[in-house]
Write a sequence for this structure.
């Protein structure tokens, strides 16, 4: 079943075309990878889907409902969660409180703070952050803050989660741990994942399908094995390596 | 959760209720102004302390309440006038809040300041147009009655801020303060929450405004909309620490004391000290006195 | 209606506008280079005005000369404020995170202190003096000499500043800092010095504007704030770091104010200025910088 559908979505910032006529679909339960050089428009794509920005043209559909133009909090309650590439923790709140906000206001809209705290602790446990729960989020390491991004997104109870370079800047061990954690998390709930990653191997190991963006356009879409050998992808990466 | 702060607060409230039995008129007057400032600053914290949208124009609610109060008092009596003043301020906050709260950070600060001044001059012009440069309120309540009512409002404002801070809404407001985009992205309806905080923080100042007109039995627009009131609120909150309902007590006590000593004799000196305190606390102790004294143990790094 | 179309009114609007241009120029420098929201800016205007007032009343020194002293004094105050307070603010990483907000509160504190010091020293009765107040006729336009002089001085000074920013090495550095803070450091600009310089020029120009103003209008210790508000309107309308835009916006505000008051009543002046101020902030809620809200 199609969960998410983009129809020739474009986004311009002033004169800059960050995305141009991008179309693709994501089925329930899939893991779709998004690849592209710096500035290709990957983060912009996420912002459009999550509602942080509105497309200049085109349509976005989620669960059969049109969502472009709706607000991020509405999309969140409808079941879309995202992480931020440049982490945005609630720095002055504790790690637990960060996640609690998401439980309280996400799609489950938990009313009881006690239950929200319990739920938040479970999620922190899944991401190995439970020992840090009463620390201020601003004092976490980068790796910790990236995990917190995921924890907070999961805590909203999404059907679709958009992960934006959650592994960038982590060490090899940390990447492996996180990969495992993401797999376990996906198994446990019926999640659909769209993931942006520069770490190629990570993407290869996770994704069922990969979409490649180049200067805001979708140039290829296919299975991971096919993507690595595609000439256009190689050209795009070598040509505009930055 | 309410824990160790409940007892001292109840004791303080009981002591405050007992003040008139032991003190003379002068001290009751001082206690009244202390209660007034606590009510105003607690209300301010509900908005600015929790959301980070610093209002430098909170006097607008006080002034509006004073205006509505004086217009209604003679017509419908004190109780309804004070209620009407609170209602008017709340409705006004709802009306201007939606556009105003889209403006962020320092621009919001300036906007609130401008809005208060704007309203001040509008009321001045309207009153001048009516040929009315000041109004008198005769036969108002006694200082003692006013004291108990304002004390009640101070307690109500403290309780409101305390419970909102710990409520579901409070989580949303603090998330907005820390990062509004992220809050929105995890499902917080930010516009609604900010508006709710704005309106909640406006009602009690409106009521206080009406009561303080009754206290001075005199209404003059440039006095009830005086920006010094806004400065004082902000300074009290910053001195006390603006993150929490506990903060204003220290800040208000300190400044009321200072003002009692200086205001009548040397208002400029009082204002200069106010400015210096503001500068010093922003530079050296952004967390305020409570932030310093009670800094949470969790703040240490791993 | 006749009066509305007169040259007289247009000239008055130009004089008011040109003072706004000058005051806003200084604000633009300090905000543009350091993101410091100087709400005490108008108080420099007040200080400059008092310097010229006292020098004239005590020793008869022409404000057209004492304006240089006023500028030097306020520039020195700028340097002092930078070294004493803002260097600390800019250096403290924790405070920098909320720099604009903190600087706003700091400047508010400074503004309160300055205004009340002035009111303590000079008491708050309005003061004025007569200088160059003969009316000269140009065609059928009658104008006082001091207004003409003020217009000429602001015109020349604005030109000098624009040229300085365009051609002088420090001017270029200031512009670089306004546009690309990180890049400017990399290119080897001595940020510290440029920042002091911005403070000095910004404050000094405001002081000079105050000196000019004292020839034409009554002065009080609390006269500064309306100028701060006007300067913010001008900077927001004209665009950050955009000096030509700022000039156009300053003149526009002068015209708006003068004609607005002429069409309604003088008592509406404050309502008008604050109304424009609110409107400008509401319409450009992203702040002075415009639409740079990058979500990543
Ligand atoms: N809010 C914005 N305003 C103006 N331009 C923007 C904005 N957001 C993104 N851009 C521009 O749009 C283009 C695409 O940016 P985007 O962040 O989506 O790229 P990306 O693929 O995520 O890159 P990276 O790998 O560096 O994260 C870039 O040129 C960027 O500068
Ligand atoms: Mg990106």
């Amino acid at each position: 079943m199609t969960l998410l559908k983009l129809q020739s979505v474009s986004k311009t910032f002033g004169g800059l075309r960050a995305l141009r006529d991008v179309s693709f679909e994501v089925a329930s339960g899939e893991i779709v990878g998004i690849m592209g050089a710096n500035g290709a428009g990957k983060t912009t794509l996420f912002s459009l889907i999550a509602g942080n920005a509105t497309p200049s043209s085109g349509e976005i559909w989620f669960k059969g409902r049109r969502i472009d133009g709706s607000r991020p909090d509405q999309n969140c309650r409808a079941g879309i969660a995202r992480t931020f590439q440049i982490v945005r923790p609630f720095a002055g709140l504790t790690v637990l409180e960060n996640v609690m906000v998401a439980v309280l206001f996400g799609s489950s809209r938990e009313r009881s703070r006690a239950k929200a705290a319990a739920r938040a602790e479970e999620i922190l446990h899944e991401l190995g952050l439970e020992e840090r729960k009463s620390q201020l989020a601003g004092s976490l390491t980068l790796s910790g803050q990236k995990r917190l991004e995921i924890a907070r997104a999961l805590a909203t109870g999404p059907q679709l989660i958009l992960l934006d370079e959650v592994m960038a800047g982590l060490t090899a061990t940390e990447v492996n741990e996180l990969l495992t954690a993401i797999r376990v998390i996906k198994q446990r709930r019926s999640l659909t994942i769209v993931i942006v990653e520069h770490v190629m191997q990570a993407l290869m190991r996770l994704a069922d399908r990969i979409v490649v963006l180049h200067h805001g356009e979708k140039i290829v879409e296919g299975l991971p094995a096919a993507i690595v050998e595609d000439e256009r992808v190689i050209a795009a990466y070598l040509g505009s390596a930055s | 959760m309410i824990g160790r702060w409940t007892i001292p607060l109840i004791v303080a409230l009981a002591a405050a209720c007992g003040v008139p039995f032991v003190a003379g008129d002068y001290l009751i007057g001082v206690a009244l102004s202390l209660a007034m400032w606590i009510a105003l600053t607690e209300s301010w914290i509900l908005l600015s302390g929790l959301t980070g949208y610093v209002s430098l124009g909170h006097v607008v609610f006080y002034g509006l309440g004073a205006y509505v109060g004086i217009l209604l008092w003679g017509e419908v009596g004190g109780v309804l006038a004070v209620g009407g003043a609170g209602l008017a301020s709340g409705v006004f906050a709802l009306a201007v809040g939606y556009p105003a709260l889209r403006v962020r950070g320092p621009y919001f600060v300036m906007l609130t300041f401008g809005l208060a001044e704007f309203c001040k001059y509008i009321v001045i012009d309207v009153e001048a147009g009516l040929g009315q440069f000041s109004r008198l309120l005769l036969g108002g309540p006694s200082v003692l009655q006013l004291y108990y009512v304002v004390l009640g409002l101070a307690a109500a404002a403290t309780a409101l801020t305390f419970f909102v801070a710990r409520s579901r809404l409070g989580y949303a407001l603090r998330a907005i303060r820390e990062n509004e985009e992220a809050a929105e992205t995890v499902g917080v309806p930010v516009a609604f929450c900010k508006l709710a905080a704005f309106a909640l923080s406006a009602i009690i100042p409106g009521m206080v405004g009406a009561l303080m007109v009754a206290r001075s039995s005199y209404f003059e627009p440039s006095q009830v909309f005086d920006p010094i009131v806004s400065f004082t609120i902000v300074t009290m909150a910053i001195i006390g620490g603006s993150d929490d309902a506990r903060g204003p007590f220290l800040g208000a006590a300190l400044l009321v004391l200072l003002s009692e000593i200086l205001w009548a004799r040397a208002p400029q000196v009082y204002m200069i000290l106010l400015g210096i305190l503001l500068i010093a606390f922003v530079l050296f102790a952004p967390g305020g006195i409570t932030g310093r004294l009670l800094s949470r143990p969790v703040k240490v790094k791993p | 209606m006749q009066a509305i179309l007169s040259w007289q009114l247009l000239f008055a609007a130009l004089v008011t506008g040109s003072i706004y241009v000058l005051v806003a120029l200084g604000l633009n420098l300090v905000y543009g280079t350091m993101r410091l929201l100087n709400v005490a800016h108008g108080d420099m205007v007040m200080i400059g005005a008092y310097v010229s007032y006292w020098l004239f009343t005590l020793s008869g020194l022409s404000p057209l000369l004492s304006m240089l002293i006023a500028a030097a004094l306020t520039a020195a105050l700028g340097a002092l404020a930078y070294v004493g307070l803002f260097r600390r603010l800019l250096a403290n990483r924790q405070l920098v995170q909320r720099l604009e907000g903190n600087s706003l509160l700091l400047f508010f504190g400074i503004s309160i202190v300055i205004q009340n010091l002035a009111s303590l020293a000079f008491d708050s009765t309005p003061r004025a003096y007569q200088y160059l107040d003969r009316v000269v006729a140009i065609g059928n336009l009658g104008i006082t000499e001091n207004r003409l002089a003020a217009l000429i001085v602001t015109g020349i000074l604005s030109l000098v500043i624009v040229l300085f920013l365009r051609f002088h090495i420090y001017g270029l550095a200031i512009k670089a800092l306004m546009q690309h803070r990180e890049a400017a450091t990399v290119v080897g600009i001595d940020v510290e010095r440029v920042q002091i310089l911005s403070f000095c020029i910004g404050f000094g120009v405001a002081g000079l504007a105050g000196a000019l103003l004292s020839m034409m209008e009554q002065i009080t210790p609390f006269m500064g704030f309306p100028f701060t508000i006007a300067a913010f309107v001008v900077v927001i309308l004209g665009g950050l770091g955009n000096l030509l835009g700022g000039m156009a916006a300053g003149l526009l505000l002068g015209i708006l104010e003068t004609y607005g008051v002429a069409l309604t009543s003088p008592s509406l002046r404050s309502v008008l200025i604050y109304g424009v101020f609110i409107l400008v902030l509401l319409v450009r809620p992203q702040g002075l910088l415009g639409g740079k809200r990058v979500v990543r």
In short: DSSP finds 14 helices and two strands in chain B. Chain B touches chain C through 41 residues (CB under 8 Å). The longest helix of chain B spans residues 25-51. The CA atoms of residues 103 and 147 of chain B lie 37 Å apart.
